[in-house]
Amino acid sequence: MEVNDLFRCLKEQHQALQIYLDTILAHQKAIISADAAALDATIKSESECLFLVGNCETRRQEILSGLSAKYSLENKSNKLSDFIKEINKKKLFDTRNLVKMQNSMKSLITEIIKVNSQNKLLIEQARNFIKETIAAFMSMNKNSLVDRKY
Length: 150
Hints:
By secondary structure, the protein is mainly alpha-helical. It is 86% helix and 0% strand.
């Protein structure tokens, strides 16, 4: 295993995360426009994207483990940041590209978390609206039964 393998894997994971972000943004638009067909399509795409991201993550961890063993690093976790710290301690090679990729992925993940929380809020508001609408209809029916004259 080489560092280039790690960088290629990170690049694939970054692309998968970008596709996931685009998908959840499309999901958000579908929620707002109440497009049921688009909601179904985005939910299916989300699960496919998450599967791809999970596969990339598994490969990334395997590569990090292999590289840590190869370079005899005291890497106790499979975190990229820990790996970069260990490489920098031993000054084995330049880690600037790895750091750039890591920072780009962090900002992408931050954006994904933000959009997911917005989507969660939209769904909660829609549920509350439906509950309030049903409650209003139910109270209208009760009043009409009581107000009838026999």
